[in-house]
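Handout, page 2. Input:
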Amino acid sequence: MALESLAQAIARLERRGFRHSLRARCGELRAVDSGESFAPEELEIDEIVRFEGETDPAEEVALFALRGPDGAPLGTYSSMYGPATLAEDAFVVRRLRGARSRLFATARSRR
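Output:
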């Protein structure tokens, strides 16, 4: 069975309603298309998909499927994790409820 790529995971989550692409900015997550901002604490993690580089441990990425404050699917947010994590992303991920425990406990790791 072939492992899911990052692009395939994003497409799968978009089909489930996670349509917005989110980026960390000034301590919040901002929807790229609308510019709407969300405090990480008001979002709920629906799923985390981890990707690990086949040959380079620095190629570690986590894809978060996030639900909005109303509980409806909102969008996806990707971040490097491990030593390559950017400070802005680390600040936001720490504030997502349950992210740390779920990120390192997830069994849905992909290559």
